[in-house]
Design brief:
This protein has five helices and nine strands, in the order αββααβββββββαα. The chain has helices spanning 7-10, 30-34, 61-76, 166-179, 190-217; strands at residues 15-17, 20-22, 81-83, 93-99, 105-116, 125-131, 139-145, 147-153, 159-165. Strands 1, 2, 3, 4, 5, 8 and 9 form a seven-stranded mixed β-sheet that branches. The protein has a two-stranded antiparallel ribbon with strand order 6-7. The chain is globular. The protein starts with 6 loop residues before the first helix and ends with a helix.
Length: 220
């Protein structure tokens, strides 16, 4: 999921890492500093259209490396969230570095996440523009709830609960959808899906070139 333009402002305010507030945090996360850029899969690739497998091995070097690589790949692509199947890995895992509507920056990862939406009386359905790193260059209006809770595990197998509002709630729902084998295009009408694919055809080359140039500037 692409980042909103106000991330730079959010980075100077309060930050929550793995759902917990911290006093200070670097603009480029430590995971991204350690990572290697991976190729982002695109709509039409089979790995994006099937439910991902649960993670069963925790605390491994391979899992830590995957998370680091996903953070850097997300950063290079100007993303707010990235699911494992978006780098071709069939595992229930996503990472995020996303502001909410109050300017709080949320950074972390979730493994085997389960989405828990509030009851109808305590949430609103919001129509807002949404994009996807696997549909480069396209943005369409998608309805999402303004609040979301995701329960899962960290890379060491410890339980996590992450709550989001506004744009961060949208991010949590978007990334959880990915791990179920869905993209935001699945929530569109046929006409709007066709329009999103047209936008992608027009803008894909520009977006991908921008990613390559950003990676080069970082020496990656």
């Amino acid at each position: 999921m692409p980042v909103r333009h106000d991330r730079s402002q959010a980075a100077d305010r309060r930050t929550r890492v793995q759902g917990r507030p911290v006093d200070a945090y670097p603009a480029l996360s430590p995971e991204a500093e350690r990572g290697t850029v991976r190729r982002i899969t695109e709509i039409g690739e089979e790995v994006l259209s099937r439910p991902c497998q649960e993670v069963t091995d925790f605390g491994t070097a391979g899992l830590s490396t995957l998370i680091d690589d996903m953070f850097l790949t997300m950063h290079v692509a100007d993303g707010a969230g990235l699911a494992a199947n978006q780098v071709g890995v069939d595992l229930r895992l996503f990472v995020y570095d996303c502001p909410d509507d109050d300017g709080i920056r949320h950074v972390g990862h979730l493994i085997n996440p389960v989405l828990d939406l509030p009851g109808p009386g305590s949430r609103q359905l919001i129509d807002a523009f949404e994009g996807c790193l696997s549909v480069p260059g396209a943005t369409m209006t998608v309805p999402r709830t303004d609040r979301a809770v995701v329960r899962g595990l960290d890379k060491d197998g410890n339980p996590l609960t992450v709550e989001g509002t506004g744009y961060f709630a949208r991010c949590l729902q978007h990334e959880t959808d990915h791990l179920l084998g869905h993209t935001y295009l699945d929530r569109l009408s046929k006409r709007d899906r066709k329009e999103a694919l047209r936008q992608m055809a027009d803008r894909r080359e520009e977006v991908c070139t921008r990613r390559v140039r950003k990676a080069a500037r970082l020496g990656r």
